Amino acid sequence: MNRLARLLVPFAVAATLAGCNIKQSFEKADAAIGTFHADLAAGSYDRIWMTADPDLRQSSSKADFEKLLQAVHDKLGAVKETKQTGWNTNATTGGTYLTAVMQTTFEKGTGTEQFTYRKGKDDTVTLVNYAIDSRDMMLN
């Protein structure tokens, strides 16, 4: 039994440290979401674009991405409240991805936002994808 414990303890320690690291990464993602919302309210779409992950900038044109952000801002207004309702992590050969699902109340309606961030080697997070599902946005 003692031998088995010596074999399992390193795995338990590694799992605990990985869990803490993911928790810290989601705290950084939450802060990045707050910055995203502040930039959205200020109309600083260029700042969102410039700080986004290269994958986002390759998957969409700047003009199309800014049209999306402008539509969210024009039709829903500034964020009044947001609450995380789900999250996921996915480790791939391309990196570790953190996805947060947020239920957000805006000035003119509500929506479910999905933010996907890539965790960098230096523990920074960069926005890879932003999506919003909002009936209010469609009807306004």
Salient structural properties:
140 residues; alpha+beta; 4 strands; 53% helix
Structure report:
This protein has helices at 2-42, 45-51, 54-59, 62-76, 135-139, and strands at residues 79-92, 95-106, 109-119, 125-133. It is an alpha+beta fold. A four-stranded antiparallel sheet has the order 1-2-3-4.
SSE run: HHHHEEEEH
Q: What's the end-to-end separation, in Å?
A: 65 Å
Taking Cα atoms only, what radius of gyration do you get, to the nearest Å? Answer: 18 Å
Sheet bearing the most strands, described? 4 strands, antiparallel
Number-wise, the strands total 4
Could you give the order of strands across the largest sheet? 1-2-3-4
CATH class: Alpha Beta
List the helices and strands and how they pair.
Elements: H1 2-42, H2 45-51, H3 54-59, H4 62-76, E1 79-92, E2 95-106, E3 109-119, E4 125-133, H5 135-139
Antiparallel strand pairs: 1-2, 2-3, 3-4
Briefly characterize the structure.
The protein is built from 5 helices and 4 strands; from the N terminus they run H-H-H-H-E-E-E-E-H.
